[in-house]
Amino acid sequence: MTEKWQELFRRAAEGALARVDDALKTHGYLRQLAERVREARLEVLNNLDYYIEATKKAVESIGGRAYLADTAEDAREIVGKIVGRGKVVVFGKSNTALEVGLREYLAEMGNEVWETDLGEFIVQIGDDRPSNMIAPALHLSRGDVAKLFRERLGLDVGDDPSKLAAAAGDFLRAKFAKADVGITGANAIAADTGAVVNVENEGNIRKATVMPPVHIVVAGVEKIVPTLVDAVSQAIVQAAYHGLFPPTYLEVSAGPSSTGDIELVRVRPAQGPREFHLVLVDNGRRAAAKDPVMREALLCIRCVRCGFVCPVYRAVGREFGDPPYVGPVGVMWLAVTRGIEAAGPSAVKCAHAGNCREVCPMKINIPEIIHYIKSSYLSKKTK
C-alpha cells in the first residue's frame, strides 16, 4: 500500500495546499479570522467547565436536550437510549462518533446504520479504516472505489469520480428518505445559543439534520466557542485551511425545527426534526485541559493542514496514528482520548521536522506536544 498511498497523498496534498495558499492570498480576512478563533478557543479552554454548563443550558432553552458523556462508553449508552432498536440511522460526519465506536454499537443493537459522507461510506462498505480525518478514503484510487461499488453494492458505473459520487448519492438518498435518526458531529458549538454549526460540501449533513425526525449531535467539548459568531467563524476557517473555500454549505442547527408563521409566535416542532439532542463528549478532554502541555491540543479545529506537510504521514499514512485519528493531529488526539500508552508508538515515529507547527492556523506547537507524548511514553517503558 505504501507506494500507492504516497502517490495518492502527493496529488491530494499538492492540490489542497495550493488551494489554501490561493484562498489566503485572495481573502486576506481569513488570517485575521483565524486569530480571532484562536482567542475564542483559548477563552473556552481557560474556562471549560463554565462553558460546558452554559452550552447545556442554552440547548435546553431552545427546546433541545443536552448531555455530558464522561467516557466513550457513556456516549454510546446515551445515544443508544435515544435511538433504541430497529431504527434506520444515518450518520453525517463525526470523528467523535468514530472515536467512541458509535456506529458499531448502534448496529449491534439491531439498527440499520449508514455513513453518508462519501468517504466514510466508501470506508464502511469496504470494511476498511479511515486514512484521513476529513477525506477518509484518501488511500483508495477511483479504480478501488469502482470495484467496491460493483462487488458490495452491485453498481457498475465505471471509475469516473462524478459517476461514482452520483451513484452513491442515489443509493443514500433512499436511506435518508426512511431514516428515523440523523447523527452528525459539529465543527463548532455556540455556548450563548446552543447552536451547532457544520460546514460541508456534499449536502449529506444538511439532509441528516433536517430529514429524520430525530437529530443527535455527538461532539467533543472542545468544539464549544463563546458565541454563534465565533462558531460560524471557526467553521469558515476550518474549511479555508483544509483547501475547500468557500464551502458549499454552512449549516446552523439550533434546537428542533420551528416556525413563527402564526402571529409570529415561535413554536416547535415544525416540518423538520421533532427532537434535538446534543451529546458533549469528554473522554479525556477535560483532563488534557489541565495538563500544561497537552491542553494546547484542544485548540485544534481539525483542518488537518498539518498532515499535508508531514513527511512521516506522507510516508506511512494511517500507521502514523490510529484511525480515525491519524497524522500529526491524530497523534495528539490519541493521547487526549486514549492516553499516552495508545499514542506513544506513533509519537516515536515523529521526525520532528516542524512543518506542522508552521502551517497550523491555531499556532499549536505540535512538535512539542508530540515530543512530550514520546518522552512520557519512553520513560514509562524504561521503568
From TrEMBL:
InterPro entries: 4Fe4S_Fe-S-bd (IPR017896), 4Fe4S_Fe_S_CS (IPR017900), FTHF_cligase-like_sf (IPR024185), Helical_ferredxn (IPR009051), LUD_dom (IPR003741), LutB/LldF (IPR004452), NagB/RpiA_transferase-like (IPR037171). The keyword Metal-binding applies. Residues 290-321 form the 4Fe-4S ferredoxin-type domain. One of its GO terms (biological process) is lactate metabolic process. The keyword Electron transport applies. Signal peptide: none annotated. This is 4Fe-4S ferredoxin-type domain-containing protein. It comes from Thermoproteus uzoniensis (strain 768-20).
